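Database export, one record per block. Field names are fixed; values are copied verbatim from the stored entry.
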Amino acid sequence: QIPFTTNSSAKLDPRIGCCAEGMIAYPFRERRMSTCPTCQTSFDEAVRVCPVDGTTLGGPDPLIGRVLGDRYRVLGLIAEGGMGTVYKAEHVVLGRRLAVKVLRPEFSTDEDLVRRFQREAVAASKLGQENIVDVTDFGRTREGNLYFVMEQLEGRSLAAVLHGEGPLAFDRTCLILAQLCRALAAAHGHG
Protein backbone atom coordinates (compact mmCIF):
# COMPACT_ATOMS: atom_id res chain seq x y z
CA GLN A 1 0.00 0.00 0.00
CA ILE A 2 1.39 3.33 -1.08
CA PRO A 3 0.03 6.43 0.70
CA PHE A 4 -1.93 8.39 -1.90
CA THR A 5 -3.44 11.83 -1.43
CA THR A 6 -7.00 10.65 -0.81
CA ASN A 7 -8.55 9.23 2.31
CA SER A 8 -10.53 6.12 1.48
CA SER A 9 -10.61 4.23 4.78
CA ALA A 10 -13.72 5.82 6.27
CA LYS A 11 -15.76 3.71 8.72
CA LEU A 12 -19.34 4.58 7.86
CA ASP A 13 -21.61 1.73 9.10
CA PRO A 14 -21.71 0.12 12.57
CA ARG A 15 -21.81 -3.70 12.64
CA ILE A 16 -24.84 -5.54 13.93
CA GLY A 17 -24.84 -8.72 15.97
CA CYS A 18 -26.40 -11.89 14.60
CA CYS A 19 -26.31 -15.65 15.10
CA ALA A 20 -26.72 -18.45 12.53
CA GLU A 21 -27.90 -21.96 13.43
CA GLY A 22 -25.06 -24.06 14.82
CA MET A 23 -22.99 -21.04 15.83
CA ILE A 24 -22.35 -19.98 19.41
CA ALA A 25 -24.44 -16.93 20.29
CA TYR A 26 -22.40 -14.21 21.98
CA PRO A 27 -24.17 -11.31 23.62
CA PHE A 28 -24.44 -8.35 21.28
CA ARG A 29 -22.52 -5.34 22.52
CA GLU A 30 -23.89 -2.14 21.11
CA ARG A 31 -21.17 0.03 19.62
CA ARG A 32 -20.93 3.54 20.88
CA MET A 33 -21.25 6.09 18.15
CA SER A 34 -20.11 9.68 17.77
CA THR A 35 -21.55 12.16 15.30
CA CYS A 36 -19.54 14.74 13.42
CA PRO A 37 -20.86 18.19 14.39
CA THR A 38 -20.03 19.53 10.92
CA CYS A 39 -21.49 16.96 8.48
CA GLN A 40 -23.73 15.01 10.93
CA THR A 41 -22.31 11.62 9.80
CA SER A 42 -22.12 8.96 12.54
CA PHE A 43 -19.00 6.88 13.21
CA ASP A 44 -17.74 4.32 15.70
CA GLU A 45 -16.50 6.13 18.82
CA ALA A 46 -12.93 4.96 18.06
CA VAL A 47 -12.82 7.26 15.02
CA ARG A 48 -11.25 10.52 16.17
CA VAL A 49 -11.27 12.47 12.88
CA CYS A 50 -14.25 12.67 10.52
CA PRO A 51 -13.10 11.09 7.23
CA VAL A 52 -15.61 13.24 5.33
CA ASP A 53 -14.59 16.73 6.46
CA GLY A 54 -11.63 16.39 8.88
CA THR A 55 -13.44 17.60 12.02
CA THR A 56 -11.87 16.33 15.26
CA LEU A 57 -14.18 13.94 17.15
CA GLY A 58 -13.99 12.69 20.74
CA GLY A 59 -11.43 13.40 23.44
CA PRO A 60 -7.79 14.42 23.38
CA ASP A 61 -5.16 12.22 21.77
CA PRO A 62 -2.09 11.42 23.91
CA LEU A 63 0.33 11.93 20.99
CA ILE A 64 -0.74 15.52 20.34
CA GLY A 65 1.89 17.87 21.73
CA ARG A 66 4.59 15.18 21.99
CA VAL A 67 7.88 15.15 20.08
CA LEU A 68 8.65 11.95 18.17
CA GLY A 69 12.25 10.94 17.46
CA ASP A 70 13.54 14.20 18.98
CA ARG A 71 12.51 15.92 15.72
CA TYR A 72 8.76 15.95 15.05
CA ARG A 73 6.23 17.76 17.26
CA VAL A 74 2.72 16.32 16.79
CA LEU A 75 0.28 19.21 16.32
CA GLY A 76 -3.08 17.57 15.58
CA LEU A 77 -5.06 14.84 13.86
CA ILE A 78 -5.49 14.63 10.09
CA ALA A 79 -7.15 11.24 9.52
CA GLU A 80 -7.45 7.65 10.66
CA GLY A 81 -7.08 4.56 8.52
CA GLY A 82 -7.26 0.84 8.97
CA MET A 83 -3.66 0.45 10.16
CA GLY A 84 -2.83 3.81 11.64
CA THR A 85 -3.49 7.45 12.38
CA VAL A 86 -2.08 10.41 10.46
CA TYR A 87 -1.12 13.55 12.38
CA LYS A 88 -0.06 17.08 11.48
CA ALA A 89 3.48 17.62 12.72
CA GLU A 90 6.30 20.13 12.59
CA HIS A 91 10.06 19.60 12.49
CA VAL A 92 11.24 21.18 15.77
CA VAL A 93 14.38 22.75 14.27
CA LEU A 94 13.43 23.49 10.66
CA GLY A 95 9.82 24.50 11.35
CA ARG A 96 8.71 22.52 8.31
CA ARG A 97 5.12 21.21 8.39
CA LEU A 98 4.86 17.47 7.86
CA ALA A 99 2.50 14.56 8.39
CA VAL A 100 3.28 11.55 10.58
CA LYS A 101 1.53 8.20 10.16
CA VAL A 102 1.61 6.13 13.37
CA LEU A 103 0.81 2.43 13.32
CA ARG A 104 -1.99 1.52 15.73
CA PRO A 105 -0.71 0.04 19.03
CA GLU A 106 -2.57 -3.25 18.51
CA PHE A 107 -0.64 -3.77 15.24
CA SER A 108 2.83 -2.79 16.48
CA THR A 109 3.42 -6.25 17.97
CA ASP A 110 2.33 -8.17 14.85
CA GLU A 111 5.58 -8.82 12.96
CA ASP A 112 3.82 -9.34 9.62
CA LEU A 113 2.04 -5.99 9.90
CA VAL A 114 5.24 -4.30 11.10
CA ARG A 115 7.06 -5.57 7.99
CA ARG A 116 4.16 -4.40 5.79
CA PHE A 117 4.24 -0.94 7.39
CA GLN A 118 8.02 -0.73 6.89
CA ARG A 119 7.66 -1.84 3.25
CA GLU A 120 5.03 0.85 2.71
CA ALA A 121 7.39 3.52 4.07
CA VAL A 122 10.42 2.31 2.10
CA ALA A 123 8.47 1.90 -1.14
CA ALA A 124 6.89 5.35 -0.91
CA SER A 125 10.25 6.97 -0.10
CA LYS A 126 11.81 5.59 -3.30
CA LEU A 127 9.12 6.57 -5.79
CA GLY A 128 9.53 10.32 -6.13
CA GLN A 129 6.34 10.69 -8.17
CA GLU A 130 4.26 13.88 -7.92
CA ASN A 131 0.99 12.05 -7.18
CA ILE A 132 2.44 9.93 -4.35
CA VAL A 133 3.24 11.37 -0.94
CA ASP A 134 6.99 11.66 -0.29
CA VAL A 135 8.11 9.71 2.82
CA THR A 136 11.22 11.17 4.50
CA ASP A 137 11.79 9.36 7.82
CA PHE A 138 10.87 6.31 9.88
CA GLY A 139 10.97 5.51 13.60
CA ARG A 140 9.23 4.26 16.76
CA THR A 141 7.40 6.12 19.52
CA ARG A 142 8.66 5.59 23.07
CA GLU A 143 5.78 3.09 23.47
CA GLY A 144 7.14 1.11 20.51
CA ASN A 145 4.60 2.12 17.86
CA LEU A 146 6.07 2.50 14.39
CA TYR A 147 5.67 5.76 12.48
CA PHE A 148 6.81 7.32 9.25
CA VAL A 149 7.11 10.98 8.34
CA MET A 150 5.85 12.34 5.03
CA GLU A 151 5.05 15.60 3.32
CA GLN A 152 1.85 17.26 4.51
CA LEU A 153 -0.65 17.95 1.77
CA GLU A 154 -3.07 20.86 1.85
CA GLY A 155 -6.58 20.69 0.50
CA ARG A 156 -9.65 18.49 0.77
CA SER A 157 -9.78 14.72 0.45
CA LEU A 158 -11.66 13.20 -2.46
CA ALA A 159 -14.28 11.98 0.07
CA ALA A 160 -14.83 15.56 1.27
CA VAL A 161 -15.12 16.85 -2.31
CA LEU A 162 -17.67 14.18 -3.19
CA HIS A 163 -19.63 14.80 0.00
CA GLY A 164 -19.69 18.55 -0.60
CA GLU A 165 -20.17 18.65 -4.36
CA GLY A 166 -21.80 15.34 -5.22
CA PRO A 167 -20.91 13.51 -8.44
CA LEU A 168 -18.01 15.08 -10.33
CA ALA A 169 -18.10 16.23 -13.94
CA PHE A 170 -16.70 13.72 -16.43
CA ASP A 171 -13.68 15.91 -17.35
CA ARG A 172 -12.72 16.41 -13.70
CA THR A 173 -13.13 12.69 -13.01
CA CYS A 174 -10.82 11.90 -15.94
CA LEU A 175 -8.14 14.29 -14.58
CA ILE A 176 -8.26 12.62 -11.15
CA LEU A 177 -8.11 9.14 -12.70
CA ALA A 178 -5.15 10.16 -14.87
CA GLN A 179 -3.24 11.25 -11.75
CA LEU A 180 -4.14 8.00 -10.03
CA CYS A 181 -2.99 5.98 -13.05
CA ARG A 182 0.36 7.83 -13.15
CA ALA A 183 0.86 7.09 -9.45
CA LEU A 184 0.00 3.40 -9.91
CA ALA A 185 2.29 3.14 -12.94
CA ALA A 186 5.17 4.59 -10.90
CA ALA A 187 4.48 2.20 -8.02
CA HIS A 188 4.27 -0.83 -10.33
CA GLY A 189 7.40 0.32 -12.15
CA HIS A 190 9.31 -0.01 -8.86
CA GLY A 191 7.93 -3.51 -8.20
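Remark 1: The first helix runs from residue 111 to 127.
Remark 2: The longest strand covers residues 72-80.
End of record.
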